[in-house]
Design a protein that fits this description.
The complex is a heterotrimer of chains A (about 300), B (about 270) and C (about 350).
Chain A: H1 3-34, H2 41-58, H3 63-89, H4 94-116, E1 132-134, E2 137-139, H5 141-162, H6 164-174, H7 176-181, H8 186-212, H9 222-232, H10 237-262, H11 267-281
Antiparallel strand pairs in A: 1-2
Chain B: E1 9-20, E2 24-35, E3 39-43, H1 50-58, E4 66-75, E5 78-79, H2 85-91, E6 93-96, H3 108-114, H4 122-135, H5 137-141, H6 152-165, E7 170-174, H7 182-199, E8 202-207, H8 210-216, E9 219-224, E10 227-233, H9 234-239, H10 241-246, H11 259-269
Parallel strand pairs in B: 3-8, 3-9, 6-7, 7-8
Antiparallel strand pairs in B: 1-2, 1-4, 4-5, 9-10
Helix pairs in contact in B: 3-6
Chain C: H1 13-16, H2 23-42, H3 45-71, H4 79-96, H5 100-124, H6 128-146, H7 149-152, E1 159-160, E2 165-166, E3 169-170, H8 174-195, H9 199-209, H10 211-216, H11 221-248, E4 250-251, H12 258-271, H13 276-304, H14 310-331, H15 335-349
Antiparallel strand pairs in C: 1-4, 2-3
Helix pairs in contact in C: 2-8, 3-8, 3-11, 3-12, 3-13, 4-5, 4-6, 4-11, 5-6, 5-11, 8-11, 9-11, 12-13, 13-14, 13-15
């Protein structure tokens, strides 16, 4: 057993996992603020990455200006999604809302590709590909940057959910009717959560676009994001971060053991297995809330 | 039996009709006046339209796909019939909805924070919280535990406290006594009366527990099948033989041999 | 107007449990059935085989999913995986020399067995969590298919389906394929129409509305959930096998990928949960309209002399497909079946519609 190699696998796994968290945070944000499952986060991430590229390449802005501007635009898009689509389905059964977000996901993906085409583009953030050596362990710089962004967003959202606005968002997730009755604008709250998730999608789109290129494959991260979100507990931001690290390590180390046995490509399998096992054993995840039932 | 109220009404509802889903007529021309600073009770049996009346006033009808199809609702001389629920809360109408729906995953303290109006400063909010904890000392003890695990009475107190944070001038309560032990009902009603007297807050109380409600209010309306069938002072209502028979559990109607007589009388009443 | 009824009023239980509660519905069904039988003689074979045939088979499949999602209320995002099991088992059986009749049944049964595994997830969780679990199971199944050359047929991952033969008759003509699809769809439809009237159908609805309340009433929700999954999986398996045997002719894993699962669910929900006629509409909309819009856009841009990027054109159907789901859900969350019902109810009393203001 090569311990150095294993440590390297674990550390890089943890960093990749934090990038999954980046994705999962978008899911958790919306679930925490409106108890709506957001299966459109994959599509949103794709849109986010393409908008950044469009601003940088087609308009010619420098990246440091394009990314915040894209974040602002996506913030508006998030509000728009609530206004046009979710508001009218508020309070409907989860099947319909699930389908709505799936439809949104398909629509966003299709529209993005229809506008910008399906060929993979590169983000070119300018992060060096020179690996970083930590003793004998080498670490990818862009993963490190992404992990930093994930943790930064985590801290920011933890602070937001402690604030008065954040408490109102959590109240909305608990009970729409009671929120209306004390004058909380449920519509604005849900819109805000979608807007924030769309901003997170820009961050995820930029980092993942840098790693694997900006194309349709960005939306396939949804399964990993879902697995992380469920493992951490769908309404826990802390859970999304911790579960991201766990999933990343399990996936990276597990794939190293399993790949030779099954002939490669066992990552997807591990992620799916984690998702199934979590739901079967502990549906509310590591840090999620039990639904409180009193008779 | 109608006595003219001299005090200017804070809320007046004129022959309001409510349609659910565009087909179900839930209340059929209800007119109610709440005088400023008074406590008014809305009595009636299940499905009579009491909760719908409150929802029409607070604007929560929209969430249940209902709408006011006729009549108008005025609050402090402003027509609020079509106003957003949120705006009405800002104007000072707060509705404590049925079934003690507190935010279960939040602590009582956070429940109160969640209801704070947008412009309220932190120190004002803290002052408001202290005031509420003074009214409901039981809540203060459990201010940092999860609201979902509070007892029924504590949850009802929290729901009322949460409404008080919005600084209402008209507080509407939908069956606060539901499923609570009699001593708790008495405690909560006592506190309501205290708030009414100390702050001059008008209260509109929907109750099935007419006996308890008539003890604290000054005037009551009786609603049956979506219509107001009686409006009188609490004293007059308490001594009315029909009310005694049907709502207070007294009178001669308790004899179940007279069940036919019972239903005939009831039909006449509506 | 066309219905000439002033409403649906039942005076006894027999009339209440009729399949078609309005005579006009029955007439319409008979008319559609006759049209379906005569279609090969009326409809050009291009349309018959590239539009009507897939429409019928997908409708059968969607009805199967409707059984488990619409009637029993269990979200299922792994339906395509179940179809894949049926398709591959049936084709392997047929290649092995088993007559097609039995091969189809083997496919259905194999699907039932695997599909019941999904039911075990449904016993543990419901709603969103069930959707996520079945989604993950779909991914596992995709993975198994793409990583087992013995199932999917070697390095090209495509498996040739042997010529379909039923009742000793080889089927090779377009009309023949069509009639097989038509027969299967009619069979499933009749089964679903009758399901409503049986104890099973009522038990499923009880489980959907509140499973523990159903349990209190003596409905064994454990048993009925598994039964619902097994039955719907059987329909899925046979539909999957027929889809390959009469339409694709080659089985490939991407025909049953996660996107297909989402597509079938979209068909069911856009059509309307637990609405049979809705499933017909939903499949037609999801299957046919995106292509149609693409044709219109392509034709329109040609006639206007505009040059539309090939890639743009290739992705428009997807955007339209997503938009359709969103728009239908926003217009009528209960789907096209409900819209049809609304129109029917309106016409039933027209022009004497005094009830509406």
């Amino acid at each position: 057993m090569d311990w150095v190699f294993l440590t390297e696998l674990a550390i890089n796994g943890a960093l990749t996992g934090l990038l999954y968290s980046l994705f999962a945070i978008g899911l958790v944000l919306i679930y925490k603020a409106s108890s709506v499952p957001n299966l459109a986060q994959g599509g949103l991430t794709m849109v986010g990455a393409y908008v950044v590229l469009a601003l940088a390449r087609d308009v010619g802005l420098p990246l440091w200006a394009a990314i915040p501007l894209a974040a602002v635009l996506m913030f508006g898009l998030g509000f728009g999604i609530e206004r046009v689509a979710l508001r009218r389905l508020a309070g409907r059964p989860v099947v319909m809302i699930l389908m709505l977000t799936l439809g949104l996901d398909i629509f966003l993906r299709g529209t993005t590709l229809a506008i910008w085409g399906g060929t993979s583009r590169s983000m070119e953030l300018g992060v060096s590909y020179e690996p970083l050596f930590l003793g004998d362990i080498f670490i990818s710089r862009i993963h490190l940057v992404g992990a930093g962004v994930a943790i930064g967003l985590f801290v920011a959202f933890m602070l937001i959910f402690r604030s008065r606005t954040g408490i109102k968002l959590r109240a909305i997730a608990d009970d729409y009717m009671a929120s209306w009755s004390v004058g909380i604008s449920v519509e604005r709250g849900v819109g805000l959560s979608w807007a924030l998730a769309s901003v997170v999608a820009v961050a995820a789109g930029v980092i993942w676009g840098e790693i694997q290129g900006v194309d349709q494959a960005l939306s396939l991260l949804l399964l990993k994001g879902l697995a992380v979100a469920v493992l951490g507990g769908l309404d826990s931001i802390l859970g999304a971060v911790v579960a991201g690290i766990i999933l990343g390590v399990v996936e990276n180390v597990g794939a190293d053991f399993l790949d030779p046995l099954v002939g490669g490509g066992s990552r997807e399998l591990i992620v799916a297995a984690v998702l199934i096992l979590t739901v079967m054993i502990r549906p509310h995840g590591l840090f999620g809330h039990h639904d409180i039932e009193r008779v | 039996m109608q006595q003219k109220v001299e005090i200017q009404p804070i809320l007046s509802m004129n022959s309001v009709e409510v349609l659910y889903d565009n087909v179900m007529l839930a209340i059929k021309g209800v007119s109610i006046q709440v005088p400023k600073g008074k406590m008014i009770a809305l009595l009636g049996s299940n499905g009579a339209g009491k909760s719908t009346t409150l929802k029409a006033i607070s604007g929560l009808l929209k969430a249940e796909r209902g709408r006011v199809s006729r009549g108008e609702i005025k609050f402090e001389d402003t027509d609020i019939t079509e106003m957003l629920a949120q705006k009405r809360v800002e104007m000072g109408i707060c509705h404590v909805i049925e079934g003690r729906r507190v935010f279960e995953h939040l602590t009582p303290d956070e429940n109160l924070t969640a209801a704070a109006p947008a412009g309220m400063s932190r120190s004002d909010l803290n002052g408001e919280k202290e005031k509420i904890y003074n009214y409901f000392p039981r809540l203060a003890e459990r201010r940092n535990s999860l609201s979902g695990y509070l007892s029924g009475g504590e949850q009802q107190m929290l729901a009322i406290g949460r409404a008080l944070v919005t600084q209402p001038s008209l507080l509407m309560l939908d069956e606060p006594s539901l499923g609570l032990a009699p001593f708790l009902v008495a405690e909560i009603f006592g506190i309501l009366q205290k708030i009414n007297q100390e702050q001059g807050m008008s209260v509109l109380l929907v109750e099935q527990n007419a006996l308890a409600a008539l003890e604290i209010v000054s005037e009551g309306y009786l609603i049956e099948n979506g219509r107001v069938v009686m409006n009188a002072s609490a004293e007059a209502l308490k001594s009315n033989s029909d009310i005694q028979e049907f709502y207070l559990g007294g009178g001669e109607g308790t004899n179940f041999h007279n069940v036919k007589h019972y239903s005939r009388r009831k039909r006449w009443l509506s | 107007m066309f219905y000439r009824l002033s409403g649906v009023h039942h005076a006894n239980y027999v009339s209440d449990s009729r399949i078609f509660k309005v005579p006009a519905d029955r007439n319409l069904a008979v008319f559609v059935l006759l049209f379906g039988l005569a279609a090969p003689f009326i409809v050009p074979s291009l349309y018959l085989n590239s539009y009507m045939l897939p429409w019928l088979i997908w409708t059968a499949a969607a009805l199967g999913l409707n059984l488990v999602t619409g009637w029993a209320g269990q979200l299922h995002l792994g339906y395509a995986a179940v179809m894949a099991v049926g398709a591959y088992s049936a084709i392997h059986a047929a290649r092995f020399g088993v007559p097609w009749e039995f091969a189809l049944i083997i496919g259905g049964l194999a699907s039932s067995v695997i599909g019941s595994l999904f039911a075990f997830a449904a016993l543990r969780v419901k709603g969103l969590y069930l959707a996520l679990t079945t989604l993950a199971m779909q991914f596992v199944m995709d993975w198994v298919l793409t990583h087992s050359p013995t199932i999917t047929g070697g390095s090209h991952a495509s498996l040739q389906s042997p010529t379909l033969a039923l009742l000793g008759q080889e089927i090779t003509s377009d009309a023949g394929y069509y009639y097989v699809a038509f027969g299967w769809c009619v069979l499933v439809t009749i089964f679903m129409l009758n399901l409503k009237r049986t104890g099973l159908g009522r038990a499923l609805v009880a489980v959907r509305e509140k499973d523990f309340a159903a349990a209190i009433l003596g409905v064994n929700s454990f048993y009925y959930k598994i039964l619902a999954f097994a039955t719907s999986s059987f329909i899925a398996g046979v539909s999957g096998a027929l889809l390959v045997a009469t339409f694709f002719f080659l089985a490939a894993p991407e025909q049953f990928s996660v996107n297909v699962s989402i597509q079938v669910l979209a068909m069911v929900i856009v059509g309307g949960l637990s609405s049979i006629i809705g499933s017909y509409f939903g499949v037609a909309l999801i299957l046919l309209v995106p292509g149609l819009v693409n044709g219109i856009v392509a034709g329109g841009s040609l006639s206007l002399g505009m040059q539309i990027n090939v890639e743009t054109l290739a992705h428009i159907p997807n955007a339209v497909y997503g938009a359709l789901i969103v728009i239908i859900l926003l217009i009528e969350p209960l789907g096209l079946g409900k819209l049809y019902g609304n129109i029917r109810d309106y016409l039933m009393v027209w022009p004497f519609d005094q009830l509406r203001k």
